[in-house]
Design goal:
This protein is α+β, with helices and mostly antiparallel strands and 186 residues long. Helices cover 23% and strands 24% of the residues. The chain has four helices and nine strands. Strands 1, 2, 3, 4, 5, 6, 7, 8 and 9 form a nine-stranded antiparallel beta sheet that branches. A hairpin with a 6-residue loop joins strand 4 and strand 5. The termini are close together. It binds heme C. Heme C binds next to helix 1, strand 3, strand 4, strand 5 and strand 6.
Amino acid sequence: MRVRSISTVLIVSFVALGAYAVEAGGPLWPKAGVVSGANALQTVAPSPEAKSVLAAIRGYSGWPHFAENVKPKRSLAHNGMWVLVFHNDVVTRAVAKRQLPLPEGSLLVKENRFEPTGKVALLTVMSKQHGRWFWLEVVPAQGAGEPQVVKAGGTAIEGFRAQACAGCHEQNVDNDGVFSHPFAEE
Ligand code: HEC
């Protein structure tokens, strides 16, 4: 099996979460019920690049799931939240062909909740563009507004260089940075 061991992921996750917990300018992940103060989530309007990713994932809740994650499960890393991953048809074909790395246009959308059936607190997105992952973390749209990008340590969590995301996912480089489904497994 190519996916790195869960324990490696957990160790890195504690390091990563610890680092962001003390960072000024907002945490990477929200804490349930914390709406003000240093531990409250900070957000900023999406850039044009983030807006085009948000446009591309419109309707994602009708997309398929990986067989490993058909209903919300407790995350090993994303703040212990309840997570549910959706993917587009480009990824569906890559699953069938056991294709690595994932092709241009691949989209992975993960819903993050505090409770298995609660409302979606965060969306974390991976979008394959020009052979690289574009990372994005947003608070879903409230009412008529648009989704807002999470700001951690003063930096908007969007783009190809979002180390807060890539630094952990890179552990799984043999599986193109994806944890939820091993593409090349027999
Ligand atoms: C500390 C490690 C860690 C960090 C930091 C992290 N992730 Fe993940 N991510 C995971 C793990 C582990 C999974 C597999 C499902 C689970 O347990 O949550 C995952 C799953 C995902 C998925 C579903 C596809 C997959 O790889 O399984 C997306 C999309 C995603 N993460 C996006 C992000 C984004 C965007 C960020 C930055 C805001 C981020 N992740 C930060 C560990 C991490």
